[in-house]
Structure formats: structure tokens, C-alpha cells
Amino acid sequence: MIPVQADVVVGNSVAPAVVAINPPMKLKSSAINVEAAINPVGITPTGNMDIDENPKELAWYKLGPKPGEKGSAVIAGHYGWKDTVPSVFNDLNRLKKGDTISTYDAAGHELVFVVVGTELYAPTQDATNVFRSNDGKAHLNLITCQGSWNNSARTYSERLVVFTDLVQTKS
To answer: What residues contact residue 90 under an 8 Å CB cut-off, 6+ apart?
Structure first.
């Protein structure tokens, strides 16, 4: 647990507050009807961010910042269907600027992020900017696959990244 300086929205003003940042346990977004557990992951033997095997759960890149810490925290989730059940981020492409996403830690502390943009990447495209930020702010970037399925490569043709900024903390 690391104490950090964060902005807390109070009415129409922003007041500083110290918030203890714990690992994320759950993500919620009413805009896309998602409430899912978050599991920590590292990197694969090929150097890519790992992902949770469960298509209904999310993966937080534990080698980077936690949501709410300065920098870009990254959470990934599956896209597509498995055994006729939709994956957790099937509707991630429906998020638009101004929509909110919340993460929760084990103590129930909520961090609220607002969508500021989206970008598509090819699977082999350099996505360093998704994992790094040097503007001194807390970001949460959400990743999923999108596009058409390539059976021979066993992957989708694109990666969708939703960029968000921390706007509120709640205890």
C-alpha cells in the first residue's frame, strides 16, 4: 500500500487528498454493463502482457502502476465468445468520451476514471504509449481485441485501447 496525492472532486471544486493505493480487485462500468474481477498478471515468455484465461475476468498489468498511481495502469480483457458466452470486454468499443469506469480495491475504495479517447492498434504495432505516461497524472488504459478473427494466427486483427484519466476517489 502506497500513499499518493490524488485529486478528490468535492462539489464543483477539486481538493487534494491522500489515498492509499491497493491492488485493484474489481472494475465496474454501467455504460457497458461490466462488473468483473481483476487478477494481476505479468508478461508472457514472448514479452507481451499476459491475460487472464477466464473470459469473464480482467487482467491488471502488475509490473506497472496500480490504478490511481501516477502513470498508466493497464487492464486487459477478452473479446469474443467462448462456449456461447460473451467475453468481459465485448462492448468496450461502445465507451465514449465522458463515460466513467470505476475500480475497487479489497477494502471497497473506489477510483473513478473518465474516458478521454480511444485508439486502434495492429497486434504487432508499438504500443509503448499505452503502458507509459510522464505527465504526472493517473491514467487507466483498457485493452481488448477487436476486428476480424484470423484463424491461422489465432488472434483478432486489431487491439482497441480506451484511455481514461482519474477524476475522483471515494472511500
So the answer is: 79, 80, 81
Q: How many CA atoms lie within 13 A of 89 on its CB side?
A: 28
Q: CA-to-CA distance for 85 and 10, rounded, in angstroms?
A: 40
Domain span at 138 = 23-170
Phi, psi of 130 (to 5 degrees): -70, -30
Cα–Cα distance, 71 to 84 (Å, whole number)? 37
The C-alpha torsion from 55 through 91 and 131 to 148, rounded to 10°, is 80
Contact 70, 64 (CB under 8 A): no
Which residues sit opposite 50 in a β-bridge? none
As for how many domains the chain has, the answer is: 1
Q: Answer whether 116's CB lies under 8 Å from 162's CB.
A: no
DSSP secondary structure letter of residue 66? P
Which of 42-56, 89-103, 118-132 has the lowest average pLDDT? 118-132
> Are the C-beta atoms of 12 and 60 separated by less than 8 Å?
no
- Domain with residue 81: its CATH number is 2.40.260.10
Reported pTM: 0.84
Q: State whether residue 105 is helix, strand or coil.
A: coil
Q: List the single range of 33-42, 51-60, 67-76, 118-127 with lowest mean pLDDT.
A: 118-127
